[in-house]
Specification:
alpha+beta; 11 strands; five-stranded antiparallel beta sheet; 25% strand
Length: 286
């Protein structure tokens, strides 16, 4: 697989997304993306700008080494979580966390080549889009928490219609519902997510991709081009990303800027961190 393009852009002062890849641009052997979960604590406790950014930074450093091994995805995840537990323990030795502290978490997608075929590891709601040689598509883009997301969108739209536009005020108002939703992390009635806890091993998705011709990894902020703004469908997003992930991001930001109050396109935040990694086997057929 060739690295066709990669982009990561924050929507605020701190970009809580991240990405990485191994190999050369002409022969990528593994690639991954992270999407740090926005914190709902009263303040941040670690030194990376936000606690979510801290987790993504630590996870990226560890995954860079682990993805270079021959380990299977489930074993990579086990080693990654063990390392994050050690990192979190060390980071909190001199920090007194409140009793209701919401631990940092992140969505993760890793794709890795084993021989001639590819496997994927997915936790959270970042998006994996792959296309086979016959044109068939495999789309893994469903949100793990749709019911809460839809309810929040409806309620936030009411608040914005009444003139409440401050995201911090909205986060404070809906903190109880967000905490309730986050209590379902890595639970059978909830959703998978990467965190510094063995709970993250409970229900990851491990996907056999076979021998795809294209793979697009993207965070939900980038996938807004499909599910929020209708700029592309899934196949179209792959095609547009082959042409240029930066161009997709520009059109996405233009759509967000044209609707700053989130009224035309209802959503919790006016903009989100956006990250994408586009891989392709052969561009001759484009």
């Amino acid at each position: 697989m060739r690295l066709i393009g990669a982009v990561s852009e924050g929507s605020g002062a701190v970009n809580e997304d991240g990405f990485g890849w191994l190999g050369t641009p002409e022969d990528v052997s593994a690639a991954w993306i992270f999407d740090g979960v926005t914190g709902i604590n009263e303040r941040n406790y670690f030194g990376e700008g936000t606690d979510a950014r801290w987790l993504v930074s630590r996870a990226h450093a560890r995954l860079t080494a682990l993805a270079a091994s021959s380990m299977q995805p489930g074993v990579i995840l086990k080693e990654l979580v063990s390392g994050l537990i050690a990192d979190f323990s060390a980071a909190t030795e001199a920090v007194e966390l409140p009793g209701d502290y919401d631990p940092p978490a992140a969505c993760l997608i890793l794709v890795k080549r084993y021989g001639d075929s590819w496997q994927a590891l997915r936790l959270g709601d970042s998006c994996l889009l792959a296309r086979d040689g016959d044109g068939g598509h495999r789309i893994h883009a469903a949100s793990p928490n749709n019911q809460l997301d839809h309810w929040l969108t409806r309620e936030v739209r009411k608040r914005r219609g009444a003139g409440v536009l401050d995201i911090k005020a909205l986060l404070a108002e809906f903190a109880p519902q967000l905490k309730q939703g986050r209590a379902r992390r890595n639970r059978p009635d909830g959703y998978s997510i990467l965190e510094a806890s063995r709970d993250a091993l409970a229900m990851p998705e491990i996907i056999d991709l076979g021998m795809p011709t294209e793979i697009l990894l993207c965070t939900d902020g980038y996938y807004r081009a499909v599910d929020h703004y209708g700029l592309h469908n899934n196949a179209g997003l792959i095609d547009a990303s082959v042409e240029g992930v930066e161009r997709v991001l520009v059109t996405l930001r233009e759509a967000e800027a044209a609707d700053p109050d989130c009224l035309r396109h209802p959503r919790f935040k006016p903009a989100d961190d956006a990250t994408a990694v586009m891989l392709a086997k052969d561009l001759n057929h484009f």
